[in-house]
Amino acid sequence: MTVAVIGGGISGLVLAHRLRSQGTKAVVLESAARVGGNVQSPAHEGYVLESGPNSFLDREPATRELAAALGVEARIRPADAAAKNRYIYTRGAMRKLPSSPPAFLTSDILPFSARLRVLAELFSGRGPAGVDESLAQLGRRHLGPEATTVLLDAVQTGIYAGDPEKLSAEATFPQLVKFEREHRSLILGAIRSQRAARKASAADADGGSKSKLTGLLSTFDGGLGVLVDALAAALGDAVHTDAKVEGLTPQASGWKVRVREHGRTVELLASQVVLAVPSHVAAGLLRPLDEPLAAKLEGIPYAPIAVVHLGFAPGATPKPDGFGFLVPAVEGKAVLGTIHVSTTFPFRAPGGRVLLTCLMGGARRPDVVARDEDALVALAREELKAMTGLTATPELTRVVRWPRGIPQYTVGHLERLASLDAGLKRWPGLHLTGNAYRGVGVNDCIRDATRLGDTLA
Ligand SMILES: Cc1cc2nc3c(=O)[nH]c(=O)nc-3n(C[C@H](O)[C@H](O)[C@H](O)COP(=O)(O)OP(=O)(O)OC[C@H]3O[C@@H](n4cnc5c(N)ncnc54)[C@H](O)[C@@H]3O)c2cc1C
Q1: Cα of 38 to ligand 1 centre, how many Å?
Q2: Distance CA 320, CA 343 (A)
Q3: Weakest-pLDDT range from 32-36, 205-209, 213-217, 425-429
């Protein structure tokens, strides 16, 4: 019998591909007219836009292996060297993020006293054992209040668009908690782990490892949609679009899946079911069967996010420096950050055009995302003018809204995952994957779906 994969975002597609490449029958049921979920790379007037993710760090073997298996590995494009600088808008000015500890000590990213406080991290202590702390609690103990409000907040904003007072430190930045546990100080932990990584990679090189991972921020030559298109092509008619799953019924062996496909209701028998849909959708499907399990799933909140693309004709505005900038919440802006797309991936805005992608709203400004498109463009331009001095009129504007954009791994997330795993044991043949559980990035989704695919195959 077949494995029914519900949801055709990157998670569901990767899972089905992994299963089928090992000879296990699988179908993908996707409610939208096209697959990809958050990953969409429409081309408009010479620009390649990204409705969701823009890039991935090329350090995940599962992503490389997938690209190779699909024949698109040669289409991976690293960020341009010009994107190496990153900025934070703080204390009313754009300031360059220092790239080394000595540069940090002489930079203006934090006031002098706050930089000294960061140095005192070397003497900071461990947190209370067995407590799932918020990211802000961990940050304040180690780095002090200002570095937490500016630096840690900016870093988490770039990944979670969240609120560090609510996010679980261990679920969002497990490496930091590991450093604290093993080395007490985060700085010492980082130094020692870098040293160990260097040693390991030297040993790897001696052993003639063929690893092609560059560790660089990357995309594909036509945007991340290249990966989705390649997955869809490889899966062929195993992918059903316009196929919304409306109900699940356990059978003596397997599951009956009720699908509304192209306006008709059909039933499919599956040996296993994988829910690769957002957690609130999984909650809705499981509620008639298991209210406590549904309540756990419903308990994972999402931050809404709006993506505003501004494209400028050649010569209309100078090419901005670096990858882009992030804005800590304390600045009170609706713009969370801006990616200098044409600097980072010039092929996405050829011919001297400038493309900026502003991310707006997030967990602390959810109201922003509900505004209409013209209002969002106007607000983005107004804030960019105040922060960067940009006054040029864009030749292209596009807005994409994600009312449930990024899952928030709030305090208690790991406990919630453990009880979800325990709850799933009541339903043999039912599985969960996707960005709501073990990592929100594209790499995380690919890794988790690959792992589950191997387990099921
Ligand atoms: C604005 C934005 C920017 C981001 N930037 C980055 C980035 O730069 N780098 C990075 O690594 N990550 C980034 N991410 C995160 C990353 O894009 C996502 O975590 C990832 O794409 C999620 O994939 P998924 O398949 O788990 O979920 P989704 O993409 O949400 O896919 C779920 C699918 O399920 C379908 N579905 C829902 N209900 C049903 C139903 N009843 N029946 C059938 N199908 C259904 C949906 O239509 C959807 O296609 C970003 C996310 C957003 C929103």
Answers
A1: 4
A2: 7
A3: 205-209
The residue segments making up the domain with residue 129 are: 110-206
**Token pair in block for residue 388:** 């960067």
Structural domain tally of the chain? 3
CB 239 near ligand 1, within 6 Å: no
Instruction: Kindly state whether residues 286 and 416 are assigned to the same domain.
Output: yes
- Partnered with residue 244 across adjacent β-strands are 260
Q: Which residues pair with 261 in a beta bridge?
A: 243, 264
Q: Best of 13, 31, 38, 341 to mutate for ligand 1, by most ligand atoms within 8 A of CB?
A: 38
- The model's pLDDT over 4-17, given as tens digits with 9 standing for 90+, comes to 999 999 999 999 99
**How many angstroms separate the alpha carbon of residue 142 from the centre of ligand 1?**
33
The tens digit of pLDDT for each residue in 197-250 reads: 888 877 766 544 346 899 999 999 999 999 999 999 999 999 999 999 999 999
Six token digits for residue 372: 């209409």
| Residue 147 token pair | 């570095």
> 3-class DSSP state for residue 288?
coil
Residues 148 and 191 in one domain: yes
Residue 230 within a domain: yes
Is the domain of 120 the same as that of 186? Answer: yes
pLDDT per residue as tens digits for the range 353-374: 999 999 999 998 999 999 999 9
Q: Answer yes or no: do 122 and 251 share one domain.
A: no
* Single pTM value for the model: 0.96
Q: How far is the centre of ligand 1, averaged over its atoms, from the C-alpha of 399 (Å)?
A: 17
* Strand runs labelled E in 91-197: 93-96
Q: Tell me the CATH number at 163.
A: 1.10.3110.10
Give the number of the atom of ligand 1 that is nearest the alpha carbon of residue 434: 26
Q: How far apart are CA 415 and CA 206, in angstroms?
A: 42
Retrieve residue 447's tokens: 């890794």
Residue nearest to atom 53 of ligand 1 (CA): 405
The response to whether residue 324 sits with its C-beta less than 6 Å from ligand 1 reads no
Q: How far is the CA of 32 from the centre of ligand 1 (A)?
A: 12
Distance 393 CA to ligand 1 centre (A): 31
